[in-house]
Amino acid sequence: MSSQPDPLLKVKIWAVQSISFAICFRADTTGKPITSEFLGGANKEAEAAARDIWNEAIAEADPKASGQVITLKIVQKVFDWCSSHMNQGK
C-alpha cells in the first residue's frame, strides 16, 4: 500500500504555499519586515485565498468536467492571483 498523499491534497498544499510566497514576496519588495507574526497572518490569508479560489473554480466548472480540467482551472487561478498580488502597485 502506498503512503502517497491524495493528488488533490497536493494541489491544495501547493496552492497555499504559492499564495503564501506571493504575499511574502510583495511584503519583502515593499519593505515590510517578514516576522513570525507576519508569516502567521500570511498563512491564514493564503489558506483563505486558496479556499476561495478552489470553491470558485469548482462553481465555474462544467458539472461533467474531469478532475484534471478542474485542477488546471485551480492552477490557472492561483497563478493569476499570485501574479496580480505580486504586481499590485506597479
What is the H-and-E element order? HHH
Helix count, per DSSP?
3
Backbone shape: globular
Determine Rg (CA atoms, Å).
15 Å
Which bin fits the share of residues in helices?
Answer: over 70%
Note poorly predicted spans.
none
* Domain tally: 1
Structural class per helix/strand content?
mainly alpha
Proportion of strand residues: under 5%
| Biggest beta sheet attributes | none
Number of strands: 0
Description of the structure:
Helix 1 packs across helix 2 and helix 2 packs across helix 3 (67-86). The chain has helices spanning 7-29, 36-60, 67-86. The chain contains 3 helices and no strands. With 90 residues, the protein is mostly helical. The model has no long low-confidence stretch (mean pLDDT 91). It has one domain.
Keywords:
mainly alpha, single chain, 90 residues
Please render the helix and strand layout as text.
Elements: H1 7-29, H2 36-60, H3 67-86
Helix pairs in contact: 1-2, 1-3, 2-3
Summarize this structure briefly:
The chain is mainly alpha-helical and 90 residues long.
